[in-house]
Amino acid sequence: MGRSRQGSLVSFRPDIKVVDCTLRDGGLVNNFAFTDEFVKDLYLANIKAGVDYMEFGYKASAEIFNPANFGKWKFCKEQDIRSVVGDNKTDMKIAVMADVGRTDFKKDILNKKDSVIDLIRVATYINTIPAAIEMLEDAKKKGYETTVNIMAVSKVNDDDLDGGLELLGQSSVDAIYLVDSFGAFYPEQVERLSDKYLNVAAKYNKKVGIHAHNNQQLAFANTIEALTRGVSYLDATVSGMGRGAGNCYMELLLSFLRNPKYNKIAIMNFVEKHMQKLKDEGAVWGYDIPYLLTGTLNSHPSSAIQFIKEKRTDYAMFYQELIDNVL
To answer: Among the CATH numbers 3.30.420.40, 2.60.120.10, 1.10.10.10, 3.20.20.70, which is that of 17-280?
Structure first.
């Protein structure tokens, strides 16, 4: 079933939700070692910018990840979030991500009445969807909004994806995310997949989100392609900060959206104060040839991250290594 475009370039859709993932996806760049000033300023900038949700990081298990090796936003303890937001008497909602198999969700995710968090985002692979549903139902029972990210979907065959989407459609989740984990998709593929997700969502009264990576400089293009199909939860990060090639730039997305409630000036002021400083201190992310190559070959960015860490520049040789591993 084909779908028509939702709105035009000069209209705005009230169902759009902008989600800032800078602390979570960006935290993968620097092991979540953000200063308290950075986090507080980002919170205030997002409020001024009209951002709908701010993701503070992961609810990772301290049994699996040694807290000595990470900043506090890997674990998002209640008191740490409250030290920034208080009771969050604002229109912006607070989100955290819980990975299947890496989160002690029964213990570490409190009842909503005891927490300032509004949204639990569960990240899963196609083969762990039943475990993701257990987490989603637990969070829903505790009183939270919920979304789910199916990761590495560019590696999943259509039948498996259809089956996974059906299962999630039948769950209580509020929104299902189309995720381009490897930055491998082109807008035409995003159009087709958005329609697939939206058809399931329509059947079960869900929303759909998009989380794009910038390996081929297409994170923004893919995000607005999904948006024009009817996808409503839009993930972005300040200056595209995220693992490897990074994500859709918040500055670009807010410039594109026509809703007058969104204001890119606050984000630009934050960029001026903080983002170059982060890069000067050694944080590395953003489009680069190694990420282009992993993106075009639909392969995990870990090898490109290693290539850049080793300060290699033998791109042709790296390309051959990738081909040998992929084929």
So the answer is: 3.20.20.70
Q: What count of other Cβ atoms lies within 10 Å of the Cβ of residue 31?
A: 12
Alpha helices in the chain (DSSP H): 22-25, 27-30, 36-49, 78-85, 105-108, 129-142, 158-170, 187-204, 219-229, 250-256, 264-270, 276-280, 289-296, 302-309, 315-326
Residue 10: per-residue pLDDT:
56
Report the pLDDT value the prediction gives residue 3, as an integer from 0 to 100.
72
Report the 10 Å Cβ neighbour count for 135: 26
User: Which residue, 180, 245, 275, 220, is CA-closest to 28?
Assistant: 245
SS3 110: coil
Determine the pLDDT at residue 156.
98
- Using the predicted structure, report yes or no on whether residue 51 has a pLDDT greater than 80: yes
Close Cβ partners of 316 (under 8 Å, ≥ 6 residues apart): none
In sequence order, what are the beta bridge partners of 148?
122, 176
Domain boundaries, the chain: 17-280, 289-326
Cα–Cα distance measured from residue 17 to residue 129, given in angstroms and rounded to the nearest whole number: 24
Tokens of 214: 């910038």
Distances (CA, A) of 315 to 2, 172, 218, 287, 291: 41, 46, 21, 14, 11
